[in-house]
Amino acid sequence: MKITELKINNFMLFDKLDIKWSPNINIISGENSTGKTTLLKLMYSSLKPLSKKNFSTLTQEQIEDSIVRKMLGVFRPDEDKLGRLVSRVQGSNRTEFTLGLEKKGNMSIGFGNRQERHADIAININDYKKFEPIYLPPKEMISATEHFQSLYEDYHIDFEEMYYDLTKLLDRPLKKGANTAEQNKVLASFEKIIDGNIIQRDKKFYLKMKGAGEFEMGLVSEGYRKLATIIYLIASGSLDKNALFFWDEPETNMNPKMMQYLAEAILELAKMGVQVFITTHDYFVQQSFNLISSYPKLNAENLDIQFISLYRDSDKRIQYTSAASVSDLEHNSIMEEFDALYMREQDILYDN
Question: Which residues does the UniProt record annotate as the domain ATPase AAA-type core (predicted)?
Answer without folding.
Answer: 25-284
